Structures are given as structure tokens and as C-alpha cells.
């Protein structure tokens, strides 16, 4: 079993929030993640897990500290796992900007140098991390996935690319059509190269449009209408159109006045967790 | 009316979180504060206010982002106001340490140079800020006060020194007997000088021991038993002894495994807000 090193532990709502580090094979670097274990979790009672993918510049800490999710997860008996948003550290390629390189992994497997040496976030999130979590903690292999902004893109894309891995999907303010917006174009160009065929395989709207019933999972997307990135980077209307074309079970909710911050996430995380719980219970 | 400048606004749980700056007379400097206004607040329905005093190194942001308080405040119809933890900026005295100077105002009125030119946090929190809040926002003059660590000290001390200003008091992990611990001794020496008579006037346990019925307000204190500062800096047992001697209405709750972090505050903020609400409603 891969060794993990605990680096912090906090009692929270009767459960435990803990941070760990380990040497990731997928990322070819040391990485940190956080887990919230609800009070119900024990060796005799494994609980389902929500994987949370954060947005640009974030680490495992933003959601754990700011979303107010522990209260609801403790009530519902759901574990939460939050990976970092990219590989990090000396020797890991980076760029002098917040939206590329460290803190901006975009949850894909990079094919282009120098990024491909470490930026294998898809393999990390979908395979390595769940295997490690399920080996070390009293959690089941019943998984949900959610995220914010770049992480909302990640949640939607990884769920559709690996439908056998996740029972339910949600996203806050996702980058819904990255091939058509600056954040996505810049990242895909760097990590995947010039071939836009490769880009489309990581585009939630393109995947949703082409999806068949075997990829369909109950999906909740929440978007604030005062979000400063809504028109330039997020564009959830493309998801809506794609879902209509393919019959994908998407619920897209728009909320007047809410912005791109964790205040928005905190306001609706309870709804998301209850949505996931209902799907996970029905499995 | 003193001008205030809005510097951010976020919709949160149907209410609004906003940050403002203004030129404080008490602090002789520009300062920032945050306010959460619940959805019930309107010109025809003024709501009570909880003043929240943060701990060492904090600003107005820690509690607003991490405590998960907006959800409950929105339900109960309570506004929350969070000032900064000291004066700040160029020309404001500081020290090369986290527990003295900027970010460490200790909610007192400094008498010693160079601190006395700006460090008038008691006057700021008790007089200037509420006057400004009540002039600019749809809030009443029904006030509660709470805080964490250094801010728990501040809440207890300011409530007992100015009992006419607050209806209810609570604290998380307060520095309960600052004259006897390093954080308090260092700060009181710097800000108040050598005369320990002056120190005792800002010591919650000393004030509580000497308190009469006119100073008694319903008071809830929560302390985690895995708090790394419990024995060296916090020492809530002194509050308990003082309350027994004077008949002060103190409820002190100890919680196994919880530490000094905002995970502890988040886990019990709902209890604190409901405690305040009950007292405020009974007024």
C-alpha cells in the first residue's frame, strides 16, 4: 500500500478533516490532499465519497475551509476528498500566470513537453487517488464528483469520460465549453498541443452533445448570474444545448446576484450534497 | 455621516456580505470592516447585530469566509459585523512578530508610545464602529458580541467594561486570563506599560471576579480540549472560578478533540448564534 503522511488533523462537526502528502506516481511528484471523514465512517460502515475539484489557484484547502460542506457531509454520512489543482514543487513545469501551470492543471493528461512529465491530473484523480483513498480510509467505491470553475469543468469531463467511476456529478460555475474560451484555449494549447480533436475530448459541452445513455449520470450545475466570468469563460448555455440534443440528464440552475466566490458555493453546497446523497442512496 | 467606501459585495445565503473602508477617528487611520446583512434587514425592519472580534493575525475576512455563520445568521435575521484586529498601514506602529502590533490590537486603548497614536481598538469597537454601522445599515442598537482567541478576550472584556452596549456575549477559545500568560503579558506591557493595575482592567477573569449584577450578561464560552494553546495561553478555568465567586452567568463548554482552528468555530457557530438570538429576542 502506498505510504501516506498525515500533516494535519482537525475535528470538525463530529468528523475529522485531515491533510496528507504522498509520492504520486501519476504526477511524478509529492502531492497533498485533504479528506473529511464523517462520524458515520468506520471499518464496519464504509461511506460514499464526493471528490471535489477546485478552481484556478486553489489547493485542497479552499473548499474544506470555505464551503461549509462538513456540516452537511457529517449529517449525510458522505466523505469528501479534495486533491490539489495540479502537480507542484521544484522540477515541475510552471508558467508566470495564474491560469497555466501550477495551480491550473485542468484535470487532463498533458501530452506536450514540458507539461507531460507531471501534469497527468486525469489519471491522478480518476485512478490513483481513489485507489489510495479506498485502501486507507473507511470509504466505499461509491463515488460522486463535483467542483468549481476549472474544477467544475473537471468534474463534468471526468464523469463523462469515466462513467463507470461516478454515480452522480455536479458543478458550480464550470468552464462549460473550454475549447471556445480563453482559459480553456490557452490550457489546451499548452497541455494538448495544436490538434483541436484532442481538445474536444476534454470539453464538457462537446462530450455531453455526443454522449449516449451509458454516460448519462444525474448532473446538477449551479451558476451565479453576477459571476464576472460568466460570459467570457463559463458559458453554461452550451451545456444546456448539448443536453437537449443528447437527452443528457442535466439540471442547470441560475441564481440572480451570486458571483464566482465561495460565498456562492457555501450558499448552495447543501443542495448539491443532498442531490448527490439521493443518487448515491438509490444505487 | 462618515463616508464609507464599498470595496466588495457578495450575495450569500440570500443576504449580502460587503466590505468597506473608511477613515477611522479612533484609529487615526483608514480601516476595513465587513458586514453580513441577512435577507430580513430592511429600512422597515432593523435587525440586531453580532460584533465579531477575530484573533491574532486575522482581518475581517477569516470569520466571514470560514465560520459558516451566514447560513444561520440569514435564518435568524442577525447582522454580523467584523472589524479588523488592529489599525494598519504605513505610519502605524508595528512589531516583527505575529502577536504584537498590526494584527494584534488586543481590543484595548493603548496608553504607551508609539502604540497610543493608533491603537485605540476599544474605542473603535465599542463606540465609533457601532455608531457608523447603525447610521449606514438597517440594523438596530441591539448588540451581541463574540470572538475567537484574542477576539474572545476582546468580547468578554468589552462586554463587562461596557455592559450597556451588549445584550449577550460569547467566545471561542478566549485568552481568558491575559495578565497571567505570555500573549497577554507581552501585549499589555507594550500597550499599557508597567502598571499592572491597568492590565487587570482588561483581564476577563479579573473583571468577571469583580463583576456586579449590572455587568452580568448571558455568556457562552466554547473551548476545544485539543487546542494547542489551551494551557499556555487560554486557561478558561480562571473564568469558571471567577464566575463562581461573583455569580456571573457563564456557561463554559469543553469539547473533546477540537482544536484552535476555524473548524472548531464552524462546528459550534450555529449554537452560538442561536444562543445570542434567544437573548436578543427576550430583550
Strand content of chain A: 15-25%
Order of helices and strands of chain A: EEEEHHEHEHEHHHEHHEH
- Looking at how many chains there are and whether they match, the oligomeric state comes to homodimer
Helix run count of chain A: 10
Provide the low-confidence segments of chain A as ranges.
Answer: none
Averaged pLDDT of chain A: 97
The span between the termini of chain A is 28 Å
* Strand order within the widest beta sheet of chain A: 1-2-3-5-4-6-7-8-9
Query: What is the overall shape of chain A?
Result: globular
Radius of gyration of chain A: 17 Å
Would you tell me the structural class of the helices and strands of chain A? alpha/beta
Q: Which chain pair has the greatest contact?
A: A-B, 23 and 23 residues
- Biggest sheet of chain A, in brief? 9 strands, mixed
What portion of residues of chain A is helical?
A: 25-40%
How many beta-strand elements of chain A? Answer: 9
Amino acid at each position: 500500500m502506498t505510504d501516506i503522511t498525515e500533516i494535519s488533523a482537525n475535528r470538525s462537526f463530529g468528523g475529522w478533516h485531515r491533510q496528507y502528502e504522498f509520492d504520486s506516481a501519476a504526477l511524478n511528484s509529492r502531492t497533498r490532499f485533504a479528506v473529511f471523514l464523517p462520524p458515520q465512517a468506520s471499518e464496519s460502515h464504509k461511506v460514499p465519497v464526493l471528490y471535489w475539484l477546485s478552481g484556478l489557484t486553489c489547493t485542497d484547502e479552499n473548499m474544506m475551509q470555505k464551503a461549509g460542506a462538513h456540516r452537511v457531509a457529517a449529517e449525510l454520512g458522505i466523505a469528501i476528498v479534495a486533491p490539489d489543482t495540479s502537480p507542484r514543487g521544484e522540477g515541475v513545469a510552471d508558467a508566470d500566470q495564474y491560469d497555466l501551470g501550477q495551480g491550473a492543471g485542468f484535470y487532463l493528461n498533458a501530452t506536450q513537453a514540458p507539461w507531460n512529465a507531471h501534469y497527468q491530473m486525469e489519471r491522478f484523480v480518476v485512478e490513483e487517488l481513489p485507489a489510495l483513498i479506498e485502501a486507507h480510509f473507511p470509504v466505499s467505491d461509491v463515488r460522486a464528483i463535483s467542483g468549481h470553475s476549472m474544477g467544475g469543468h473537471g468534474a463534468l469531463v471526468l464523469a463523462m469520460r469515466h462513467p463507470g467511476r461516478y454515480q452522480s456529478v455536479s458543478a458550480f460555475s464550470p468552464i462549460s465549453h473550454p475549447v471556445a474560451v480563453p482559459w480553456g484555449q490557452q490550457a489546451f494549447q499548452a497541455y494538448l498541443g495544436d490538434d483541436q480533436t484532442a481538445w474536444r475530448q476534454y470539453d464538457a459541452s462537446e462530450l455531453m452533445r455526443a454522449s449516449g445513455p451509458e454516460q448519462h449520470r444525474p448532473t446538477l450545475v449551479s451558476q451565479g448570474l453576477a459571476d464576472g466570468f460568466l460570459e467570457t469563460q463559463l458559458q453554461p448555455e452550451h451545456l444546456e444545448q448539448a443536453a437537449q440534443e443528447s437527452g443528457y440528464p442535466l439540471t442547470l440552475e441560475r441564481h440572480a446576484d451570486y458571483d464566482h466566490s465561495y460565498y456562492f458555493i457555501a450558499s448552495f453546497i447543501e443542495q448539491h450534497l443532498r442531490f448527490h446523497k439521493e443518487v448515491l442512496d438509490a444505487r
